[in-house]
Amino acid sequence: MALVASWHATVTLKDSGNNSSTKVYALRGTDYATCSAEIASILAALTAVTDAEVARYALRQQWDEDALTLPAAAQVENQALLNILLDGGLKEQAIYIPAPVTGIFVAATGDGANVVDVTDTDLLAYVALFESTGEAYISDGEDADRILNGKRIHRASRKG
């Protein structure tokens, strides 16, 4: 198993009615500098053949597992719903964790199997990613303060 890197560019175009069209390009380059030059060429060629305006573009690197082994008993429709208090204490934000591990719930069976353990160390480490000292924002550039509560939910799926 190995993660294989690839680069992609996403371009959003706007028309005179403010309607959007998004194009995704799989790039041939293997580093940022090469892909930056490739997206510049794509933008020049695209703007020559469209009346729409380029509203934004993004260049991203993606890693795909080339020998993916599916888990034996995980269902992404089963989720942990966490209610997070944002910094400032006035607003809340929901976070969903697909196919949550049993360890983040109060118990493995019974009523506690549907209640998130807000003191679980793995869960606290995950939510810390969204705190002011963490690696990501939780919503609209805001930071998480703490987990208020959480529960197990099931999201509908039409995949069978």
SSE topology sketch:
Blueprint: E1 3-14, E2 20-26, H1 32-49, E3 53-65, E4 78-86, E5 92-98, H2 121-128, E6 144-154
Antiparallel strand pairs: 1-2, 1-3, 4-5, 4-6
Brief sketch in words of this structure:
The chain is α+β, with helices and mostly antiparallel strands and 160 residues long. Helices cover 16% and strands 37% of the residues.
**β-strand number:** 6
| Beta-strand residue fraction | 35-45%
Most strands sheet: 3 strands, antiparallel
- The overall pLDDT average reads 94
Report on the structure:
The protein folds into 2 domains: 3-65; 78-154, no CATH class. Helices cover 16% and strands 37% of the residues. It has 2 helices and 6 strands; from the N terminus they run ββαβββαβ. A 3-stranded antiparallel beta sheet has the order 2-1-3, covered by helices on one side. The model has no long low-confidence stretch (mean pLDDT 94).
Features:
alpha+beta; three-stranded antiparallel beta sheet; 160 residues; 16% helix; 2 domains; 37% strand
